[in-house]
Design a protein that fits this description.
Blueprint lengths: L3 E6 L7 E6 L8 H27 L9 H4 L2 H26 L3 H31 L8 H34 L3 H32 L3
Family: Belongs to the cytochrome c oxidase subunit 3 family.
Pfam family, one: COX3
Organism: Janthinobacterium lividum
Length: 212
C-alpha cells in the first residue's frame, strides 16, 4: 500500500488526534524485466519446437514443389532488410529516450513501425502468391512446417507493431516516465528477439531451402 492511511482516535473530553501511517510498497525494480525475460525464454521454446519440426519434415515434399522452386530469395532479402533496419531505428528511439527527447523518440518509433508494416506486407504477398500457385500449407509436410514457422514469426511481428503503436500513444499522453521507459525496454528486447529468430529462419529455411 502506497497510500497514506489516516486513523483517528479520540477520548471523552479530548480532541481527536490524527495519526498517519506510511507503508512502502515492496516491488522489485527489475521485476518487469525479469518477468519479460521469462516470457522470452518460453517463446524460445516455441520457436525451437517449430525449427525442430521443420528440420524433420522440411524435405517431405509429397511430389510437390520444393523450396528451390518456390522461394524468391531477392524478395526475402528485401524483407530481411526491412526487419533489420527496424531494429536500427528502434535503437535510435532508445537513444532519444535516454536523452529525454520525446519528439525524436516518437519519430523513430513511427519509422520502426513503418518498417515492421513493410515486412508484414511483403510476407503476406509471399503467402498469397504461394497459395495462388497451389503451394498452400495443406500441400505437403514441407509447406505445413514452413507456414507454421514463418507464420508464427509474422504473428509475433504483428503483435509487436500493435504494442509499438500503443506505446506511442502512452508516450504522447504521459511522456518519458519511468514506467514508459520500462515498457520501451521490454519492447526493445522483444523486437531484437524477433530479429534473431528471423535470421535463423532466413538461413535455415530460405537459404538452405534453395540448395539441391
Amino acid at each position: 500500500m502506497s497510500d497514506t492511511i489516516a486513523h483517528n482516535t479520540g477520548a471523552a473530553g479530548a480532541a481527536p488526534s490524527t495519526r498517519s501511517y506510511f507503508v512502502r510498497e515492496h516491488h522489485p525494480e527489475n521485476g518487469s524485466l525479469l518477468g519479460f525475460w521469462l516470457y522470452l525464454m518460453s517463446d524460445c521454446l516455441i520457436f525451437a519446437c517449430l525449427f525442430a519440426t521443420y528440420a524433420v519434415v522440411g524435405r517431405n515434399y509429397a511430389d510437390g514443389p520444393t523450396g528451390a522452386a518456390l522461394f524468391d530469395l531477392p524478395l526475402v532479402a528485401v524483407n530481411t532488410a526491412m526487419l533489420l533496419l527496424s531494429s536500427i531505428t528502434y535503437g535510435f528511439a532508445m537513444l532519444a529516450m535516454q536523452r529525454k527527447q520525446l519528439r525524436s523518440t516518437l519519430v523513430w518509433l513511427g519509422i520502426t513501425g513503418l518498417f515492421g508494416l513493410a515486412f508484414l506486407s511483403l510476407e503476406m504477398y509471399e503467402f498469397i502468391h504461394l497459395i495462388h500457385e497451389g503451394a498452400g500449407p495443406q500441400r505437403s509436410a514441407f509447406l505445413s512446417s514452413f507456414f507454421a514457422l514463418v507464420g508464427t514469426h509474422g504473428l509475433h511481428v504483428t503483435f509487436g507493431v500493435i504494442w509499438l503503436v500503443t506505446l506511442m500513444f502512452q508516450l504522447n499522453k504521459h511522456g518519458l516516465t519511468p514506467e514508459n521507459g520500462r515498457r520501451m525496454m521490454c519492447l526493445s528486447l522483444f523486437w531484437h528477439f524477433l530479429d534473431v529468430i528471423w535470421i535463423g529462419v532466413f538461413t535455415f529455411v530460405y537459404l538452405m531451402g534453395v540448395l539441391p
